[in-house]
Structures are given as structure tokens and as C-alpha cells.
Amino acid sequence: MTRSDFTELNQFERYARRRFKLPLLASTCFADARPHPEIPGRAVGLSLLLGEVIQVPSRLQLQQESALPQWQRWVGYAGRISDDTFGYVSERLDPERLRRAGRWIGRQLKRGKAFEASKVHGLLVVSLDANEQFCSDHRCCEDCLRREITSKDAQGREVKRTQYYHKQVYAQLSGPGLSVILDFEPMRPGEEEAAAALRLLRRLRAEYGPRFFDLVVVDAWYANGPFLRAGVEELGWPVIAVLKQEAREAYQEIAALTRARPPDQVVERDDRQVEIWEVPSLRFTDRYPGPVRGVKVRESWVQRERVGGEWIHTPKEQHWIWVVAGDLDGYDGASIRDWGHQRWKIENHAFGELTQHWHLTHCAHHHPVAVVVLLWIKLIAFTLFHAFAIGHGKRVRLGRVTLQEVRKQLYRSLLCGLPMPLWSG
Question: What three-state secondary structure class fits 74?
């Protein structure tokens, strides 16, 4: 074990204190509604935050970790915190305070030029997508969404049952550098993703302002007239949407107008040959009569695969169609393609990493307020950790260590070192 392992948590503490004023932030966003708390909400919230950073998977394990003298020194409370206390306090924290804390962190990162390396062709891209957090056949709360599931019993007969789940639409500032989830909006019973996404975009404009990012990239679920109209005309952001529905008139028109002519542009991207066709001034739908720009892309590459103990080279091909609403006329089709592919960042970096390494699908406490509160704490920890590991440190950027190794070093430094108390002067 190296000397840096013992100081990793102190480095994280100094970075969070200096860059984001973490003690003040924690005192504000972890104040809860208990009239005379024996355990400060600040200590409970910081324990939940530190538990996310060092990958503690459950409240029971968090209870055991909180008995460590090093842990108590860091959170400022000399005593063990029970799993019941974590659940009780999470029901009484204010999700809006945590949202404001997340916004403060995002603004501090923007002010410190942390997103400069995330720009693609000079613009900052926000990706929208929905993700189902968890589901249950038995536990439910008043904010649960419901659906009917058909399965087979032991005798092979079809049985219908009600399944309860939570689903949110996320907004991630996506780029090749640091990617950050700016906000999320829970879906309400009976509504579609696009409605929650518009509610989220309106809040982003009100809280971050119209110039915090430059354009919005969405999946095919949002490729409809009302969403494009609101995004462009009401909110003022250009929107790039994947178009997958072959029955759509715009899809058929783009396919027909590009079928018999050579590509307008051919570029190389990540060892792929990318052929691009453009169709300007298309009519999209009656509910968005304004012209859209169609961009069709064919990507070709050779993939090396191991089959039957031998390496073979297989030609691969992908086809994409994007529609562009709003003013991006000064950018070529290759730029549209590159921005369109940024949407995969929210699939891989956000949902993929959060699910695999941050226990996103684990419901620690199924309560309407606690679900949102614990998700915000997870996302704040996610942002602080990535800003520290990618933006502040060099080892991850240089490929010397992985993100998971940094988290392990943080945990080892907590166990073996003497972390600086967060509340020291």
C-alpha cells in the first residue's frame, strides 16, 4: 500500500472544501425537519454521501462503517448511526435543498472551466433520457408507477400481476471530458417520458439559464411535434433527435431523397468510415410545421472477433437518421453526427456506471421523499467523485488507475489513515 492511499480521502476533502464549500453545503442541504435531533442531520447526510463515494451497498453496512473512529471524525459525530436513523432522516430531508446543492456544484464546475474539455465543436450538449430505477411486485408508495405483467406459474398457466416501479428522466451534460447529471425529473403516473422531459427542461432554463449549455440531444421517444416546438420556440435550444420510426413521413422522405445520390460528406471517426447525406427544410408534423433538417449517416468498419478459437475480421455497418430542429445551419452533417452520438454518454457513463458500480437499482428505502432524497445524494456523490478523479487528478486521465481503484483507495485511506475532520477550521 502506498503513502498516497493514506492521504486520498484528505485530498478529496480538501478538494471538495475548496472547490464546492462542502461543509457549508452539507449544513444547508442536510438540515432536516426533526425538531430536536439527537444525531445532527449533517452527520447523517455526510455519512450517506461518504457511503456512496466509497461504495457501501446497504444501510446495514453503512451502520457498521459509521462506528469507525475515522468515519466519526470525518462526519463530525462521535457515535454509531443506525440503519433506522438513515431511513428516518431520509424521509425528512428536503429534496429541493439537495437539488439546489446539485445546481451549485454544476455552476461551480462551469465557472471553473471544468466543462471546456467536454465541448464538441465548441458547443456543450445536454442529453435527455429516461431510466427505470427499480421495480417491485410487493412494495409500493404513492409515487409508484404501475403496469400489468404477465408471467407463468408453476403449472404453466399465465398469471397477471401488478408491478410497481419508479422512473426518472435525466439531463446529463455530455462530452469527451467530464460528464455531469444536472438534474432529473420523476415521471408521474399516467404520463409519457416527453412530458416529464419538458418539465425538466423548463426547470433547467429557469435555474441554470439559457446559456449554460447550447443544444439538446434526445432519443426517438422525444421525436414529436410538441416536444420539438417547446424545445426550440419556447426554450430556445436547438434539438437533435434520433428518428427510428420508419412509418414517419419525415423518415420516408429522408430515405427517398438520399437513396440514389452519393453522400454529401465522407469523414473518419474512430476507425469508421462515415458517409453523410443531408436533406434541408423538411416538414416534420402538423404540430411542428417549422422546417427540420434531416441527416442520414452510414458508418462502416471492420470488427475483429474471436470465433471458435480463431480471430476473424467481420465487416459491420450502422445506419442513423437524425432530425435537427432549431438553428444549427452553420454546422455540417459530421458535427450533427458527433453531437447525436453524445446521447450514448448518458447510457454508458450515467446509467451503465451508476447501475454497475453505484447500486442505482437498489432501493434503500421505499418512501416517496426518501427515494428522491437518496437519489440526489447518490448523484451529488457521483459528481463530486468524478470531478475529483477526472478533473482534479491526473492518474485517471493518464490511464494509470481506474475510477474503481480510486474509490478503493479512498476506502483504504479511511480505514488505515486518520482523515482530516471535515469540520476543522
Answer: helix
Residue 9 · residue 413 · CB < 8 Å = yes
CA atoms within 13 A on the CB side of 8: 25
| pLDDT tens figures, 206-218 | 999 999 999 999 9
* 3-state percent helix, strand, coil for the chain, nearest multiple of 5: 45, 25, 30
Dump the DSSP string for 10-55. Answer: HHHHHHHHHHH-HHHHHHHHT-BS-SS-SS-HHHHHHHHHHHHHTT
Where would I find the beta strands (DSSP E) of 113-157? 125-136, 145-152
Tell me: pLDDT of 159 over 90.
no
CA dihedral 362, 365, 370, 376 (to 10 degrees): -20
Is residue 126 within 8 Å of residue 216, measured between CB atoms?
Answer: yes
Report how far residue 92's alpha carbon sits from residue 94's, in angstroms, rounded to the nearest whole number: 6
DSSP-derived secondary structure for 298-309: EEEEEEEEEETT
Q: What is the mean pLDDT of the chain?
A: 90
Reported as type and span, the H/E element at residue 239 is: strand 239-242
- Work out the pLDDT band at 6, boundaries 50, 70, 90: very low
Is this model's pTM higher than 0.85 or not? yes
Q: Counting Cβ atoms within 10 Å, is residue 332 exposed (0-12), middle (13-18) or buried (19+)?
A: middle
78-82, long-range: CB < 8 A, 24+ apart: 79/39, 81/39, 81/43, 81/44, 81/47
Residue 64, by phi and psi: left (phi above 0), alpha (psi -120 to 50) or beta?
alpha
Per-residue pLDDT tens over the stretch 337-387: 999 998 888 888 789 899 999 999 999 999 999 999 999 999 999 999 999
Residue pair 126/120 in contact (Cβ under 8 Å)? The answer is no
Query: At residue 277, does pLDDT exceed 80?
Result: yes
Q: Does the pLDDT at position 425 exceed 50?
A: no
Question: pLDDT value at position 252?
Answer: 92
Condensed to tens digits (0 to 9), the pLDDT of residues 47-71 reads 999 999 998 989 999 999 999 998 9
Phi-psi region of 190 (alpha: psi -120 to 50; beta: other; left: phi over 0): left
Element (DSSP H or E) covering residue 228: helix 225-229
Q: Residue 134 has what DSSP assignment?
A: E
The x, y and z cell numbers of residue 248, run together, are 414517419
What does the block give as the cell for 6?
A: 493514506
Partnered with residue 297 across adjacent β-strands are 276, 320
